[in-house]
Amino acid sequence: MPDPVLERALRQVRAEKARDRRRRGGVVAAVCAALAVAVLAGGVHLGRHSVPGERVLVATTADGVRITTTVTPADGWVRLRAVVAGVDAGERCRLVVTDVRGRRYTAGGWVASRLGDTALAGAAVVDPDDLATVDVVTEDGRVLVTSE
After folding, report:
1. Residue 16's pLDDT is what?
2. What span, in angstroms and rounded, lies between the C-alpha atoms of 94 and 107?
3. 17-51 tens-digit pLDDT
4. Per-residue DSSP letters for 88-144?
5. Which of 59, 81, 110, 138 would be a feasible disulfide site paired with 142, CB 3.0-4.6 Å?
């Protein structure tokens, strides 16, 4: 003869086990989803910031003029992202790329502001392997800083 108290206790134990399995499954699914998002975001970040052949050139003069340039190779030319600091406000400047043969190419220009660092982007038709220096040159031809 079936015992109603025992049957009810068994049903309750089974229901609690099923609820625990569902809860555990939800937590595992959430952790897996978060991990997948983190891996994907890391891959996107690395893909943007680690281009094969990319170089970072940094130089600072005794006068405090500083340039940090990221040179990204393209097919027979280079992309430049530069941050320049320490240039007197109002100074008209050019970003000049020099190749190993001494040929110079203007990759961009700006007027220095009082606000501090200037970030700019430019390009030059120089083979990435032939790039020798990136200079900040004033309008009157003075070289303020050279990075190699």
Report:
1. 86
2. 7
3. 888 888 877 666 555 555 555 555 555 555 555 56
4. PTT-EEEEEEEETTS-EEEEEEEE--TTS-EEEEEEE---GGGEEEEEEEETTS-EE
5. 138
Rounded CA separation 60/63 (Å): 8
Q: Is there a contact between 136 and 87 (Cβ–Cβ < 8 Å)?
A: yes
Residue 105 Ramachandran class (φ > 0 left, ψ -120 to 50 alpha, else beta): beta
Rounded CA-CA distance 30/147 in Å is 48
Return the SS3 of 5.
helix
Locate 131 and state its tokens: 């790039």
Mean pLDDT, residues 109-138 taken together: 93
Sequence letter at residue 37:
V
Tell me phi and psi for residue 65, to 5 degrees. Answer: -80, 130
Chain segment 76-113, per-residue pLDDT in tens: 999 999 999 999 999 999 999 999 999 999 999 999 98
Identify whether the C-beta of residue 65 lies closer than 8 Å to the C-beta of residue 87: yes
